[in-house]
Design brief:
Rossmann fold, ABC_transporter_ATP-bind, alpha/beta, three-stranded antiparallel beta sheet, nucleotide-binding, 2 domains
């Protein structure tokens, strides 16, 4: 198995001629500098990456390397200091975002939380209510539609947050460490559920994680980001068939991928000595 380093965008959609593909997300020389009374801090170096329709891409890197900043720039929640991002299709209107925390509204029921983006867009929620029920059922939340967020476990709330991100059928799904605060067993369950839903819906997914095993399990490609200022040091193709079961983590090739990624993270500042 070749694990050659490359900083160039590489597609895993090998059955389609490269000239025939158009990226769903084009990240072109994006940089981010924050200014404060203590001076300027460069969070992101010049980052370029093409993400193709239907791909599942993970951003993997140390804390503070700019992964979340890049995700927020793609989502239009922050402006880039340099470079630009181009989203094909519906643009920002065709985007769903899952945050690190579920950020559900406590005074709304679970189904009304799922319908919140529909309210914000001044669409008729009744037309989406059946879809919300279907999404909740898909994620094991049937019967909890009228519960309040505080009545659910952390894993159940995060499932509801994913349903909320999907309610308006986004073309692009951006996820910022959505399972980072969950216990290992719940995290594994949600990884399997997310993979299943992604395969059924063919969304283009950009996923931020600190977990090497999570990145390998979920991804078509893992984008390794260096310590700040964040830059892409390698884009690694993950060559496993789908659907993937958790047992795949016992395969030798899974271990090879994981060790290779850990080595890159160690080399590029993931395990700093203070």
């Amino acid at each position: 198995m070749a694990l050659a380093a490359t900083s160039e965008p590489v597609s895993t959609l090998k059955d389609v001629a490269p000239a025939a593909r158009q990226p769903a997300i084009e990240i072109d020389a994006v940089g981010k500098v924050y200014h404060s009374s203590d001076g300027a801090v460069t969070a992101l170096g010049s980052v370029s990456l093409d993400i193709y329709p239907g791909e599942f891409i993970s951003l993997l890197g140390p804390s503070g390397c700019g992964k979340t900043t890049l995700l927020r720039i793609v989502a239009g929640l922050e402006d880039a200091s340099t470079g630009h991002v181009h989203l094909r299709g519906r643009g920002l209107d065709g985007l769903g975002f899952v945050f690190q925390r579920d950020v559900l509204v406590n005074w709304r029921t679970i189904i009304d939380n799922v319908l919140l983006p529909i309210d914000f867009k001044n669409k008729k929620p009744k037309a989406y209510r059946e879809k919300a029920q279907q999404l909740l059922a898909t994620f094991g939340l049937k019967g909890f539609e009228n519960k309040r967020p505080w009545e659910l476990s952390g894993g159940m709330r995060q499932r509801a947050a994913i349903c909320r991100a999907l309610i308006d059928d986004p073309e692009l799904l951006l996820m910022d460490e959505p399972f980072g605060a969950l216990d290992a067993l719940t995290r594994d369950e949600l990884n399997v559920e997310l993979q299943s839903l992604w395969q059924k819906t063919a969304k283009t997914a950009l996923f931020v994680t600190h977990s090497i095993s999570e990145a390998v399990f979920l991804s078509d490609r893992v984008v390794v980001v260096s310590d700040k200022p964040g830059r892409i040091v390698e884009v690694l193709d993950i060559d496993f068939p789908r659907p993937r079961s958790l047992d795949i983590r016992e395969e030798p090739k899974f271990g090879q991928y994981s060790r290779h990624l850990r080595g890159l993270l160690e080399q590029h500042g993931a395990f700093r000595k203070d």
